[in-house]
Amino acid sequence: MHLFINSLAASTGGGLTYIRNVLPHLAAKPDLRVTVALSPGLLEEFRGFPNVDFLESDTTPARRFWYEQSVLPGVIRRCRADVLLSAGNFAVRKSPVPQILLSRNSIYTSPDFYRDLLSRHEYSAWMETHLRAVLAKRSIRWADITVAPSEAFASELSRWTGTRVLAIHHGFDHEAFTRNSSPLASEVEEKLRSVDGSLELLFVSHYNYYRNFETLIRGLPLLRESLAPRTVKLLLTCRLDAGQNPGAYRPEKAADLVKRLGVSDMLVELGALPYRQLHQLYVRADVYVTPAYTETFAHPLVEAMASGLPVIASDLAVHREICRDAAVYFPRFSSEKFAEAVAQVLRSEEASKRMVAIGLDRAHSFSWKTHVERILELAERLIESKGTRAAS
What span, in angstroms and rounded, lies between the C-alpha atoms of 375 and 321? Predict the structure, then answer.
């Protein structure tokens, strides 16, 4: 089988995590040929996989949809691919081969996100998100089958479109995740050493609106008061400075909130870390926290559970599906309940140990190998049902 993967949208976050983890498993299949369309700058990271060819496109994000709809079908034909895996939320409308769409962006279906944009007076972003949501909704109908990374999000997409959406969990490979032992940058290491002895809460995310940073920030003075004299530090893998984060999200509001509440000393802005080094950060923390108000899978939750951290998460169906009893949940916009959840975990060492044990076991439920096998089974079924396989 010849699988063509359109990953032009994978530049940061979950999209890039996905490609990083599935390619080694695809490359290990001796009876599979893979062609991957990549955005510029990523080729060096992925070069060297057997049975995998790469096509770089220098199209800009603004022109990407046009390229995917008008140019990419011809590229797929010339490659003589058998099936297309569209990995970036948008399908090719007239795909020349059977198409599997991976839909993993929940902002299009999130009323909270649209309200958030309006509250920030981000009117152009509000309009752009609505337009992209129309294309995402149509994409689900254009594809032969759509796959979501969780049962909760698959159900949400099905309600939104009236189309059946299949859930296949994303995976986790503990050995691959912890393989790299290169030292952290000296600046990062110095910041981590400076907070030794504190209660270290970790939140792994670029700055964006739907991860709801402000709820965490509002909870910090409450934690300082309730946990005194113990010091509390919130470790962030981003910086709350304009121009320091990918995408168009503006962190100025969060930065102003930090100053207004007087909690600058409680924040440790580490900046973005290479994915291969993230495991070193998890093992230095005491608790993993996430206040996201919308989510599709949340890879850091699995990484945190596999690293032996108790989890405190906003009460989303996706979070409960992924963590089950390995987490304590709080209403997604309640800083007070967030602070109470942290105190709850700290009050009972026995309960915390139980959460960690459940989380370690739960993390084993997620497998990139299994995910890839299920995707390839889908591809084979599509090819057989459509009767389309390129001549060798």
Answer: 21
